Amino acid sequence: MRIAVFSTKPYDRTYLTEANRRAGDRHRLTFFEPRLTHQTAMLVEDHDAVCVFVNDDVSAAVVDRLADREVRLVLTRSAGYNHIDVDRATERGVVVARVPAYSPYAVAEHAVALLLALNRKLHRAYSRVRDQNFSLNGLEGFDVHGKTLGIVGTGTIGTVFARLMRGFHCEVLAYDPFPNEEIPQLRGTYVGLDELFTRSVMVSLHCPLTAETHHLLDADRFAQLPEGSLVVNTSRGGLIDSAAAVDALKSGVLGGLAIDVYEEEADLFFEDRSEQIITDDVFARLLSFPNVLITSHQAFLTREALENIADATLGNANAFERGEASISRVE
Ligand code: NAI
After folding, report:
1. Is 80 touching ligand 1 by the criterion CB < 6 Å?
2. What is the pLDDT of residues 234-276, one digit of tens each?
3. Residue 221 bears catalytic tag
4. Same domain flag for 126 and 94
5. Ligand 1 in reach of 155 Cβ (< 6 A)
6. Which domain holds residue 230?
7. Could you please report the per-residue DSSP string of 153-197?
């Protein structure tokens, strides 16, 4: 199969090339650095499939361009698929496949890392010490041990996160419209969102971005949090109303925010923009807070996850070619 790979970074090229080799060089991979957009969709001429990532634009208009050029398959190297208009793809006979689980540990461990770093202000301590400033003033955190932690979304990643945080003997409160059995086994308790937000001094988001969860954390939800609470988001940026987060940080209700995702990240993340002026004022304001820690969508970035993503992506291509049911199709 001829696959046009968009948003290619060096690690994508390395891991996909190795996965293809393991599969007997079955596919012809063309690597493009740009994101897939309405303009770059022109590059897919002579390809049967496109392979995309989270900030590629696979909206209806782009799906139409792909279908017009006889692309029959969209392979996303991600679990989330909110960047793809699946209904339009289905209408146009284009199959969409994703990687449902590649390493929940990669993302859950990153969420733990963000939470601990934010609480103990490691991002500030690191720069201070490098500047030979060994003062501890303003670096106080709190013991995570025994504190109440809210987890929104207890699917694969949220459950691994709950498991890890049990090691800190946190009281785990969880919300998910589809509760699972493991959370009570970990001595976690399912509660409603109101109770979760009013009681948790730490909240971590692990639900998908949907119309229902868009701006799940808005001004009203921030107002419910106990003063000084910490929020971590490794899921999707659109779960948080970023302007409301700025207000909550200014008022002190929100004691700290650690995010690996941002609602307008598509024009920011994954590139070196150190020579540019940031025109997104909300993002620039977030960067200015000492109690905001941002990573640029790197939670998935472990060797194990990259290998699994590459194998599963090409596995979807194989299954599609052979008409096998093992394809992780999104419908
Ligand atoms: P999953 O599908 O296993 O779990 C999602 C859970 O959210 C399910 O249990 C579902 O019932 C629940 N849910 C659905 N609607 C909800 C709502 N309204 N409120 C609360 N919970 C709700 O997905 P998985 O693998 O755990 O991934 C979670 C999210 O993490 C993905 O949607 C993706 O956006 C994000 N992600 C981020 C990565 C990163 O690098 N930062 C990498 C991989 C995933």
Report:
1. yes
2. 999 999 999 999 999 999 999 999 999 999 998 999 999 999 9
3. no
4. no
5. yes
6. 104-294
7. --SHHHHHHHHHHHTTT-EEEEE-SS--SHHHHTT-EE--HHHHH
pTM over 0.90: yes
The helix/strand/coil state of 282 is helix
323: alpha, beta or left? (left if phi > 0; alpha if psi -120 to 50): left
Write down the catalytic residue from 27, 98, 123, 265: 265
Which 3 state secondary structure label does DSSP give 236? coil
Smallest CA separation from ligand 1 atom 1, residue: 155
Catalytic position from the list 163, 221, 236, 263 = 236
For 84-113, give the secondary structure using H, E and C.
ECHHHHHHCCCEEECCCCCCHHHHHHHHHH
Q: Whose CA is nearest to atom 43 of ligand 1?
A: 79
The number of domains in the chain is 2
- DSSP, collapsed to helix, strand or coil, labels residue 120 as helix
**What pLDDT score does 251 carry?**
96
Measured by CA distance, the residue closest to atom 4 of ligand 1 is 155
- Residue 329: strand pairing partners: 97
Rounded to 5 degrees, what angle do the CA atoms 80, 84, 88 make? 140
Q: Are residues 90 and 154 in the same domain?
A: no
